Amino acid sequence: MITRFDHAVIAVRDLDAAMARFRKLGFEVHPGGRHTGLGTYNAIIRFGLDYLELLSVADREEAMASGPSGQVLVEFFERRDGGLVGYALATSDIVADAERFRQTGLEAVGPFPMERLRPDGRLLSWRLLVPGGVPWLHPWPFLIQWDVPDDERLSWERPGTHPNGATRVVGIAVAVADLERGLHLYEQQLGLELQGRDEVPELAARRARFQVGGFTIELLAPAGDGPVQQAIERDGEHPLEVVLQVRNLEQSRRTLEQAGIVVEPAPCRAGIVIPEQQALGARLALVPAGS
Asked: Engineering a disulfide at 205: which of 149, 156, 220, 237 sits with its beta carbon 3.0 to 4.6 angstroms away?
């Protein structure tokens, strides 16, 4: 059973440079460790159980040999320096979710084990269930069930105090080519409840909203030529934007501007946006509590 949002993945070509960049954006960033046998390593921007993952390739040959997920990541870096490539939802029964996917005709790989060796020598382990077999650059999430209890995991990786005022991840926007197909995937196959549908003229898009706890998933389908259509033409169906809640929006704006970060008004939110060119290809929206 899907219980909450877990993390969003931002692929970055150079992990050290990305950590420095996201610190300039006002995030507290810590090395996460290396994924055993996959040729990848990461850094973590933690808010609570929810976090942003900066993911990079440490060993190209190992990543290519690890299978389709590693190959897609390597190929992504051949044309892009970085970007928002995927997101995970946490589940309390990943085996039951796999059976649900099978019964509804959603092809998926897993559950299969993964682990990350932290810099302090501790080993984090979990299981993944990946619709389509590859978690990157698709309009759906992958599912995660942690082996380490939540409280123990948070004692190893404590939530950060972020100078930009970010307190949690509250949403994600996903570009889909066909809204009805996206609705079927999220409602019938993932088992999420539709909260509403509307039009977003600012993005020339139609929107459907789903809720997982306090986290909102927005599916955006083109209704004409605009940012969503252009994003799909460039990278296919994929996550477009992560939405972060901040304590004080004006203070966040000032903190970013003092660091030389140019922000923009959020086109369909009561907030501001750190555009892709400022965040290594990832679009980050900042919104006040309650928006």
From this structure: 220
Name the residue among 42, 8, 6, 46 with its Cα closest to residue 154.
46
In a domain, 115, yes or no: yes
- Whether residues 133 and 236 fall in one domain: no
- CA-based Rg of the chain, rounded to a whole angstrom? 18
> Is the pLDDT assigned to residue 77 strictly greater than 80?
yes
What pTM, to 2 d.p., does this model score?
0.96
Question: What pLDDT does 183 receive?
Answer: 96
Best CA proximity match to 167, nearest among 274, 75, 252, 54: 252
Last residue of a domain, one of 99, 123, 156: 156
Tell me whether residue 81 is in a domain.
Answer: yes
User: Which of 122, 156, 190 finishes a domain?
Assistant: 156
* Number of domains within the chain: 2
Closest CA to 212 of 179, 183, 190: 190
pLDDT band, very low/low/confident/very high, at 270 (cuts 50, 70, 90)? confident
Are both 198 and 275 inside the same structural domain? Answer: yes
> What is the C-alpha separation between 163 and 151, in angstroms, rounded?
24
* Nearest alpha-carbon partner for 130 in 172, 193, 57, 67: 67
The answer on pLDDT for 267 being more than 90 is no
